[in-house]
Amino acid sequence: MIDPKDFQQKLERHKANVAKVNGLNKDAVFAPLSGAAITLVQVNFDGEGDSGQIQYVGAFAGEKRVEFPAITVTLHSSDWGGEELTTREMPLREAVEELCYGYLQQEYDGWENNDGAFGEFTLDVAERSIALEFNGRFTDYVQSNHTF
Question: Number of structural domains, the chain?
Protein backbone atom coordinates (compact mmCIF):
# COMPACT_ATOMS: atom_id res chain seq x y z
CA MET A 1 0.00 0.00 0.00
CA ILE A 2 1.23 3.48 -0.87
CA ASP A 3 1.61 5.82 2.07
CA PRO A 4 0.08 9.18 1.00
CA LYS A 5 2.51 11.14 3.20
CA ASP A 6 5.49 9.31 1.73
CA PHE A 7 4.22 9.92 -1.81
CA GLN A 8 3.64 13.61 -1.10
CA GLN A 9 7.16 13.99 0.28
CA LYS A 10 8.64 12.27 -2.78
CA LEU A 11 6.55 14.46 -5.08
CA GLU A 12 7.67 17.66 -3.35
CA ARG A 13 11.32 16.54 -3.43
CA HIS A 14 11.00 15.69 -7.13
CA LYS A 15 9.40 19.06 -7.93
CA ALA A 16 12.23 20.84 -6.10
CA ASN A 17 14.83 18.79 -8.00
CA VAL A 18 13.16 19.56 -11.35
CA ALA A 19 13.25 23.30 -10.58
CA LYS A 20 16.90 23.05 -9.51
CA VAL A 21 17.80 21.09 -12.66
CA ASN A 22 16.04 23.66 -14.85
CA GLY A 23 18.03 26.49 -13.29
CA LEU A 24 21.32 24.66 -13.81
CA ASN A 25 20.40 23.69 -17.36
CA LYS A 26 19.30 27.22 -18.23
CA ASP A 27 22.79 28.47 -17.36
CA ALA A 28 24.38 25.58 -19.29
CA VAL A 29 22.38 26.40 -22.44
CA PHE A 30 22.59 30.19 -22.43
CA ALA A 31 26.39 30.36 -22.19
CA PRO A 32 27.09 28.62 -25.53
CA LEU A 33 24.15 30.36 -27.22
CA SER A 34 25.66 33.70 -26.29
CA GLY A 35 29.13 32.60 -27.36
CA ALA A 36 27.75 31.62 -30.78
CA ALA A 37 26.19 35.10 -31.27
CA ILE A 38 22.69 33.58 -31.24
CA THR A 39 20.25 36.23 -30.05
CA LEU A 40 16.94 34.35 -30.04
CA VAL A 41 15.70 30.77 -30.03
CA GLN A 42 12.11 29.75 -30.75
CA VAL A 43 10.74 26.35 -29.78
CA ASN A 44 7.23 25.14 -30.69
CA PHE A 45 5.53 22.16 -29.05
CA ASP A 46 2.24 20.33 -29.49
CA GLY A 47 0.66 17.27 -27.98
CA GLU A 48 -2.51 15.43 -27.09
CA GLY A 49 -3.76 11.94 -26.38
CA ASP A 50 -0.80 11.08 -24.13
CA SER A 51 1.76 12.03 -26.75
CA GLY A 52 3.55 15.33 -27.18
CA GLN A 53 6.68 16.60 -28.79
CA ILE A 54 8.71 19.60 -29.75
CA GLN A 55 7.99 20.33 -33.40
CA TYR A 56 10.36 23.18 -34.21
CA VAL A 57 13.58 24.63 -32.83
CA GLY A 58 15.01 27.68 -34.59
CA ALA A 59 18.04 29.80 -33.72
CA PHE A 60 18.40 33.39 -34.88
CA ALA A 61 21.16 35.99 -35.00
CA GLY A 62 19.10 39.15 -35.23
CA GLU A 63 16.52 38.53 -37.98
CA LYS A 64 18.57 35.84 -39.72
CA ARG A 65 17.95 32.15 -39.04
CA VAL A 66 21.23 30.37 -38.22
CA GLU A 67 22.33 26.83 -37.49
CA PHE A 68 23.19 25.71 -33.99
CA PRO A 69 26.95 25.34 -33.54
CA ALA A 70 28.37 21.83 -33.05
CA ILE A 71 28.80 22.30 -29.31
CA THR A 72 28.23 19.67 -26.65
CA VAL A 73 26.47 20.77 -23.45
CA THR A 74 26.38 19.01 -20.10
CA LEU A 75 22.84 18.91 -18.71
CA HIS A 76 21.57 17.79 -15.34
CA SER A 77 18.59 15.53 -14.72
CA SER A 78 16.61 14.15 -11.82
CA ASP A 79 14.87 10.80 -11.69
CA TRP A 80 11.64 10.22 -9.79
CA GLY A 81 12.46 9.17 -6.23
CA GLY A 82 16.16 9.84 -6.69
CA GLU A 83 18.13 11.99 -4.32
CA GLU A 84 21.08 12.77 -6.58
CA LEU A 85 21.20 14.73 -9.79
CA THR A 86 22.85 13.08 -12.77
CA THR A 87 24.51 14.61 -15.82
CA ARG A 88 24.71 13.75 -19.49
CA GLU A 89 26.16 15.41 -22.56
CA MET A 90 24.27 16.28 -25.73
CA PRO A 91 24.42 18.67 -28.69
CA LEU A 92 23.31 22.25 -28.01
CA ARG A 93 20.12 22.03 -30.10
CA GLU A 94 19.04 18.88 -28.23
CA ALA A 95 19.91 20.57 -24.93
CA VAL A 96 17.55 23.44 -25.80
CA GLU A 97 14.78 20.88 -26.36
CA GLU A 98 15.53 19.15 -23.06
CA LEU A 99 15.45 22.48 -21.25
CA CYS A 100 12.02 23.25 -22.70
CA TYR A 101 10.71 19.79 -21.79
CA GLY A 102 12.02 20.42 -18.27
CA TYR A 103 10.08 23.68 -17.95
CA LEU A 104 6.95 22.01 -19.32
CA GLN A 105 7.32 19.32 -16.66
CA GLN A 106 7.89 21.95 -13.97
CA GLU A 107 4.91 24.12 -14.86
CA TYR A 108 2.45 21.83 -16.68
CA ASP A 109 3.37 18.22 -15.92
CA GLY A 110 1.13 16.03 -18.06
CA TRP A 111 0.66 18.78 -20.66
CA GLU A 112 0.44 16.16 -23.40
CA ASN A 113 -2.36 14.12 -21.82
CA ASN A 114 -6.01 14.05 -22.88
CA ASP A 115 -6.78 17.12 -25.04
CA GLY A 116 -3.19 18.25 -24.56
CA ALA A 117 -1.61 21.62 -25.18
CA PHE A 118 0.50 23.59 -27.62
CA GLY A 119 2.66 26.66 -27.43
CA GLU A 120 5.99 28.32 -27.87
CA PHE A 121 9.11 29.05 -25.90
CA THR A 122 11.14 32.14 -26.76
CA LEU A 123 14.69 32.25 -25.42
CA ASP A 124 16.04 35.80 -25.35
CA VAL A 125 19.77 35.26 -25.12
CA ALA A 126 20.75 38.85 -24.24
CA GLU A 127 18.22 38.94 -21.38
CA ARG A 128 18.90 35.30 -20.43
CA SER A 129 15.15 34.85 -20.18
CA ILE A 130 12.70 32.23 -21.36
CA ALA A 131 9.11 33.18 -22.15
CA LEU A 132 6.51 30.44 -22.41
CA GLU A 133 3.22 30.88 -24.26
CA PHE A 134 1.11 27.89 -23.15
CA ASN A 135 -2.26 26.96 -24.62
CA GLY A 136 -4.06 24.17 -22.78
CA ARG A 137 -6.83 22.39 -24.64
CA PHE A 138 -9.98 21.06 -23.00
CA THR A 139 -13.29 19.58 -23.98
CA ASP A 140 -16.34 21.48 -22.85
CA TYR A 141 -20.07 21.10 -23.21
CA VAL A 142 -23.24 22.85 -22.13
CA GLN A 143 -26.19 20.91 -20.82
CA SER A 144 -29.70 22.26 -20.47
CA ASN A 145 -32.69 20.59 -18.87
CA HIS A 146 -36.25 21.82 -19.09
CA THR A 147 -39.44 20.66 -17.52
CA PHE A 148 -42.62 22.25 -18.80
Answer: 1
